[in-house]
Design brief:
Elements lengths: L1 E7 L3 H12 L4 E5 L15 E4 L1 H9 L3 H4 L13 E2 L2 E2 L22 E4 H14 L3 E4 L3 E6 L4 E5 L2 E10 L6 H5 L4 E4 L4 E9 L8 E5 L2 E7 L2 E6 L13 H12 L5 E11 L2 E4 L3 E2 L2 E3 L5 E2 L7 H21 L8 H23 L5 H14 L2 H12 L38 E5 L6 H5 L6 E5 L10 E4 L5 E5 L5 H12 L5
This protein binds flavin-adenine dinucleotide.
Length: about 500
């Protein structure tokens, strides 16, 4: 037996990718090293993950948003966000800078805990027919021109494609021919839950000191960084004594701990694979890029990888993909990852314990306080500035499709649940219906007026919700045909 796709790792990225592939009808096997997916670190408070607008949109378009972050639950939040702890002021953000965004249920960031995200995605993947085997570690692989032999749990499993979603220390990435380059850490970060003998010595909130930074969100729940070059990360057990010593150094107090309930360490090591594809092996999520969790973007980046890769790999397997479609996964997602790594490095640079850094931070704080500054930072933090280079002259091309409300009350987002391409034609008397027939097996044609068409006559949307082409009246059929061929392959005969 040979699988079309084996995914290494049932973290959020592997599971979401499995859902995307099943949506296209591709058989998928997911291999997960851990027997039990549950962990205290995946629950509150440390398991909380901020979800950016592209992630929320992706869940909305696949009918998962209400399960993962229902609007009325405390999981959902509408916070403007921050940069290196400097909060953005909602009132200062000029949303008219993103004229193609329409109000919709997914137009705000949200939050949910890791365990809930993983449980929901695992249930959806299994319900859609993905096979998930837990307690099986991928140990290595060999690939030939037409298949990959995967060594896992003492057996050999054959697949046409292998996708590494096995996290930052990815076995698959290390076993493959992937260059992984970047910058070494400046600090060790700690997330701890402790009991304090003298809590009055440690004020709530984020505090920069001459030796580092600590952030106490509520009594005893503390994140702190010590600029030690990452020396303590995974080099010794995180004991009460160690945490107390670090907390004393970083807070410049003599605070005393009476117990240590939970602890994990991390660093600002920022590395990225130079290419996300080597033949029949692909990387996604933390397997492709690692950076500090400050600013909370890693999960969003990984889920964006999965949304971008799923339909491209499915089309490649079905034989309908245009030449170069699969390689566009790496060429589109690598620059997005590189930007996130730099965003995280810039935040680290603003946290260094030096008078120069505090002076620089004060200037950045002033800039964040301006309307242009707040808008710039919000575009990056919310993820709404994201744009792929898809060619074509329209300013909407490459951006997330506006959530048009159609005449029958349905929305564009609601119509992307099947994971197919979509041609939205606002001028049903025009020529595009005949045109659409040529791609009817891959592109759904919807002729409808909309509450607000944003002055467009038609929009071609990829399965991942990205606008492949947008036209004003009269539509340029040649440009539309070129966009369709690029993203959906040759038309039917
Ligand atoms: C403290 C902290 C806070 C964070 N906050 C945020 C946030 O607010 N927003 C955000 O976007 N991101 C955040 N992140 C980052 C985010 O959690 C990760 O980027 C995300 O979990 C990556 O998902 P993944 O599926 O790629 O990898 P992982 O979640 O690491 O999953 C990988 C899976 O692969 C399995 N595995 C590993 N090796 C093998 C193998 N050889 N064979 C089979 N299975 C294997 C693992 O057991 C695991 O289940 C945070 C991270 C930390 C540490």
């Amino acid at each position: 037996m040979i699988y079309d796709v084996v995914i290494a790792g049932a973290g959020p990225v592997g599971l979401f990718l499995a859902c995307e592939l099943r949506l296209a009808g591709i058989p998928v096997l997911v291999l997960e090293r851990a027997d039990d997916p549950r962990s205290p670190l995946k629950r509150l408070p440390f398991g909380m993950r901020g979800l950016s607008v592209p992630t929320v949109e992706a869940f909305y378009r696949r009918g998962l948003l209400n399960d993962i972050a229902p609007p009325a639950s405390p999981r959902q939040r509408h916070q403007p966000g921050h940069f290196a702890g400097i909060p953005l002021d909602h009132a200062n953000i000029d949303t008219s800078q993103w004229p193609y965004r329409l109000p919709n249920p997914a137009d705000a960031n949200a939050a949910a805990d890791m365990e809930h995200i993983e449980t929901t995605l695992a249930a959806r993947a299994a319900m859609m027919g993905a096979e998930i085997r837990r307690g099986i570690e991928v140990e290595g692989f060999e690939q030939s021109g037409d298949e990959v032999s995967i060594r896992a749990g003492g057996q050999t499993i054959r697949a046409r494609w292998l996708v590494a979603c096995d996290g930052g220390r990815s076995t698959v990435r290390k076993a493959g021919r992937f260059a992984f380059t970047g910058t070494e850490p400046e600090f060790t970060g700690y997330s701890v839950q402790v009991e304090l003998a003298d809590p009055e010595k440690l004020p709530i909130g984020r505090h920069y000191t001459p030796t580092g930074m600590y952030f106490q969100s509520r009594p005893g729940t503390i994140a702190m960084v010590e600029f030690d070059g990452g020396a303590f990360h995974r080099t010794q057990p995180v004991t009460l004594e160690l945490v107390q010593a670090v907390l004393r150094r970083v807070s410049c107090t003599d605070v005393t701990l009476t117990s240590l309930n939970l602890a994990t360490t991390w660093t600002d090591r920022a590395f990225q694979a130079t290419n996300y594809r080597d033949g029949r092996v692909l990387l996604a999520g933390d397997a492709a890029h690692i950076h500090s969790p400050l600013g909370g973007q890693g999960l969003n980046l990984g889920l964006g990888d999965a949304m971008n890769l799923g339909w491209k790999l499915a089309a490649t397997i079905r034989g309908t993909a245009s030449a170069g479609l699969l390689d566009s996964y790496s060429s589109e997602r690598h620059p997005v990852g590189a930007q996130v790594l730099d965003w995280s490095r810039a935040q680290v640079a603003l946290m260094r314990p030096s008078p120069q850094t505090r002076a620089l931070e004060a200037i950045v704080r002033d800039l964040v306080g301006t309307r242009d500054g707040a808008t710039y930072f919000a575009g990056r933090v919310w993820g709404v500035a994201l744009r792929y280079d898809v060619g074509g002259g329209h300013p909407l091309a490459g951006r997330s499709a506006p959530d048009f409300e159609l005449a029958d009350g349905t929305t564009l987002g609601g119509r992307l649940g099947a994971g197919r391409g979509l041609l939205l034609d606002f001028d049903a008397r025009g020529p595009l219906q005949a045109w659409a027939g040529r791609w009817s097996d891959r592109i759904e044609y919807v002729a409808s007026d909309a509450k607000d068409t944003l002055g467009l006559s038609a929009v071609l949307v990829r399965p991942d919700g990205c606008v492949a082409w947008a036209g004003e009246s009269p539509p340029d059929e040649r440009e539309l045909t070129a966009a369709a061929a690029r993203w959906f392959g040759e038309p039917q005969r």
